[in-house]
UniProtKB/TrEMBL annotation:
Keywords: Nucleus, Ribonucleoprotein, Ribosome biogenesis, RNA-binding, rRNA processing. GO terms for molecular function: RNA binding. Gene3D superfamilies: K Homology domain, type 1 (3.30.1370.10). Part of the small subunit (SSU) processome, composed of more than 70 proteins and the RNA chaperone small nucleolar RNA (snoRNA) U3. Belongs to the KRR1 family. It comes from Pleurodeles waltl. Residues 34-66, 283-309, 329-370, 382-410 are annotated as: Disordered. GO terms for biological process: rRNA processing. This is KRR1 small subunit processome component homolog. One of its GO terms (cellular component) is small-subunit processome. Residues 88-168 form the KRR1 small subunit processome component first KH domain.
Amino acid sequence: MQDVTPTTSRIDKCACTRGQRLQSCLFACSMASSMDPESENGEGKRRRKQGKKESAPVPDSELLTVPDGWKEPAFTKEDNPKGLIEESSFATLFPKYREAYLKECWPLVQKALDEHHVKASLDLIEGSMTVSTTKKTFDPYVIIRARDLIKLLARSVPFEQAVRILQDDMACDIIKIGSLVRNRERFIKRRQRLLGPKSSTLKALELLTSCYIMVQGNTVSSLGPFSGLKEVRKVVLDTMKNIHPIYNIKTLMIKRELAKDPELRTQNWERFLPKFKHKNINKRKEPKNKNVKKEYTPFPPPQPESQMDKELASGEYFLKESQKRKKKLDEIKAKQAEAVSRKQEQRNKAFIPPKEKPAMKPKKASAETKIDIEAFKEKVKKAKKKKLGALPEEEVKQKMAADEKKKKRK
């Protein structure tokens, strides 16, 4: 998808953006203070110096923080009654698979842009969407929001979410991730890691940042407040750098809890945030055979000894041929004898019995454990009193007779 800008125009001087209007107000205030007649007199200077001493300096944290519940006023037609001088337009291409969806939802897109007096057209032959301002358009920044709307629609964002970009407190960010990882298989794995099992990681990220995130192809489209978009971009880029998103999600959860505390809101949070260390350290495998470099010497290595030199050193050079043959035969016989003895040892290993474990010796009863004879006698007496086994015949007859009498009485 490419962004094409067929026509661009200059905007009317009165139709300035909110930031430009704020800057002009600050400049006017500074000029008014410099033109104050009291500034020429020494009394005015003295008063200002006294006021500076009395008033306490405001900390930077309070100046940079936005008050709770503050909202920027909406830009109305009264701010720019004359409108724009020339027409501005933006166009963007969309893929073939989005054609059916865009054709279906295009009337809703036109209706949403008509409220801001922006014209929208869909060209199915070229595969492009175009937005342009009209004579009734009073907000100069709405054309930028309309451009972002068609960009999001081209990036597979549904219309229900993309239309939120027309609100003042909403912004969008399209992160290109296709060129961050060279290996295609690794790129797919890391993109899937961003989604998580059953898109659970993506849902958690959406809840923490208050942004809508759409992962499609080689891009990640996000829509939400500016603070949330900054966090989304950081998480996405870290995921492509092989840092798991769960670490950033844990950090965001801690930040969310710390922001609720008014005392900790202006303090440094580094001591509360977790510090994760990389466990997978890529260590280069050391080779088995290391080539150790020898120390440098300016002298050449000594000349190796020839066969004649070796024979002269051992005295073999002066032996006769018969003596040389006899010496070689003796060496061969010695080697054969060593080999025979080695094989004999291997054969005899099968006949050597294994070592048996020693039998367990019976433990001697310790003299410290003494038997209590009196307690043992009492146990024997109690056992004698207990009647074991079946009752004798006489007792059984007596019991049966007693049971019969009871029945008759009843």
